[in-house]
Structures are given as C-alpha cells and as structure tokens.
Amino acid sequence: MAPSQVLLLAFLIGVVSGLRSLTAPAVVAWAAHRNWLNLHNTPLSFMASTAAVVIFTLLAVVELIADQLPSTPSRTKPPGLIARIVLGGLSGAGLAVSGAQSIVLGAVLGVAGGIAGAFVGYQVRTRLVKALKVPDLVIALLEDAVAIGGGLFIVSRF
Fold first, then answer.
1. pLDDT tens column, 65-75
2. What CA–CA distance (Å, rounded) separates 142 from 111?
C-alpha cells in the first residue's frame, strides 16, 4: 500500500474515533488480534492482545449505549473531545505503524481526524435530526452503524 494511502487511513480511523471514541481502538485491536494489522515488535503490540480486544470492545459497547442517554455530555465538551483526541491518536498510530509509516505522523493524523470527526459528526447529527424531523435516536443509531462499518472497512484495507 502506498504511504499516502496508509496516512489517509490513519486520518480516517481518527474520524471514526471522533464519531465514537472507543469504536476506533476496538476495531484496531480486533484487526491486530486477527493479524489484519501487523503490530508485532512495535510499541503498540499490546493492541493485538486478547485483553486489549476485550477491554476496548466492552468499553465501545458501553459507549454505544451511553450515547443514547439524554444525560450524556456533548462530544465537543472537554472530556469527550479529549477522549477522541487520545484514542484517535492511538488508532491512527496503529494503522501507520502497520503500514510501515511514522508512528508519530500516524498519531498526529489520528488526532486531527478525531477532532474533525467530533465537530463534523456533531454538526451532521444535529442538522439531520432537524432536517428529517426524526428523533435523535434514529440518527444516533445511523451514526453508530457508520462508525462501526467505517472502522471495519478501514482496518480491512491492510
């Protein structure tokens, strides 16, 4: 795979993290565990462990449920945004390293994608709810599907 493609995918997995912060590291962990991504002998080799798969998957499921609650704070507020930045960076770094690119550049692109995904995702979701005159839950579930499907599509490119 060309370096530019690897780096684009690092950015895009960050976008997934911007939509659902824990979905990106969960799909990266699954992909590494299934040997779709080669993280062996890298600082991110822990992502291929069964423990990482279980932890990130459980946390991602909890996030998918919690997102539906009216008391859940906005993803653009500091706690949610920080999570998207950190986890987007982790996920982007994993893809970059797997594609033989710079871990730092992958992390930076994952962070940028996380920020973009958080703000663009928020705007798209709120505008779709208003424009389609549907309950937020409908668009939230659609967003869940986009994050999960997009994340799996991205990691399957390796």
1. 998 888 888 99
2. 23
Taking the CA atoms of residue 81, residue 84, residue 89 and residue 94 in that order, the dihedral angle to the nearest 10 degrees is: 180
Q: pLDDT per residue over 20-76, tens digit each?
A: 999 999 999 999 999 999 999 999 999 999 999 999 999 999 999 998 888 888 999
| Token duo for residue 129 | 């709810």
Could you say which DSSP state residue 72 is in? Answer: P
Asked if 110 and 93 count as a contact pair (C-beta separation under 8 A), the reply is yes
Cα–Cα dist 4/57, whole Å: 29
| pTM (two decimals) | 0.94
Give the closest residue to 12 by CA, choosing from 156, 142, 154.
Answer: 154
